[in-house]
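Extended Data, panel c. Modelled sequence:
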Amino acid sequence: MSRRRLLGTAGAAGAVGLALGAVGGATGYAAGSPEPVTALTTIGTDYLPFHGVHQPGITTPVQASGHLIAFDLLPGAGRKEAAALLRRWSASARTLMAGEPATNGGGAGGHDTGIALDAGPSSLTVTFGFGRTFFDRTELTGQRPEALDPLPAFSNDHLDAGRSDGDLWIQIGSDDALVAFHALRTLQKDAGAAARVRWQMNGFNRSPGATPQPMTSRNLMGQIDGTGNPKPSEPDYDRRIFVPSAPAAGTPAWMADGSYAVVRRIRMLLDDWEQLTVARQEQVIGRRKADGAPLTGGTETTEMDLDKLGRDGSLVIPANAHARISKPESNGGAAMLRRPFSFHDGIGDDGTPDAGLLFVCWQAHPLKGFVPVQRKLDRGDALSAFIRHEASGLFAVPGGARQGEYVGQRLLES
């Protein structure tokens, strides 16, 4: 694994974490000093282990290509079938993340598809989670965490139920699109007669090596965005993102070292946004478009001076600016690790792009991360006029599988 991969926080090279409804203005700032960019010829060799205290794909730097997919268990499938499915999925994920062909041929057919032949691991990660309804289907409601209670409704929601929620959820990421698709296809085939796809979404980020040095990426609105994520150097980093090894009351033991993922498909109304002048866009965000620095001056990482007034006596960073409202200090310290992908699903009949953010955020508890920030944004974020929340999901993501375990074993065999 390259040193750059180890040092980067989630989103260091490609995050677009504009909360866009819940993002606190940043998705990833490289931890540590800038380092020379990884040569393109070495990208395929980057390897991330499947086994560990936490699942991969949470604090891993965002990858260039990603897929989010949710499944529902089929009628008649229960706890036994779910356990067998997680065994298959875990075996495939472990093998594919090592850059090897699918060991079970990806289900029916008995052979690997060959999609990723000639490629190395390419930073592939596969992350698994459980939705609220999973516990009903498997008769494990006594093991359902309180944190999986449904998210509250927000005024900017235009949610499509068919593209929301799900019994099971998988996040796939890689720095090679064919490697990512190979994993998607393998895991879909592995589902067999146990589960069917409920919804699936595709995303992307800037490719490693596309800039002269590691830097924060731009989202599809053209805004540099990625300075406000929790950083590994901060003493409360793990506490904000992961469930403690000894979970508190209301959190079952199987969630030790796990996390909760909030997933939102957030469409950007790009035609409306692009009609604004750059100066007006900067007022909406609260940061300069050229370099991501706060309107109060400095560089991208300079703290915002929220009390600074302009010559006309008004706040330099407007009261409804996205960066101001989503700042942890404006939300009782609420913070989350934002690790999204951008998406573009074509042009509508009216000529408008179906594009935006596949927003994924991680936290030890949604009521201490996503929910308070989104409630604040819902009451007066200037960015709300240019985005639309179209799908939503909340998933419990257990801790990493130990050697010889499959993901979720401590739940399904409890």
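The longest strand covers residues 353-363. This feature is highlighted in the accompanying rendering.
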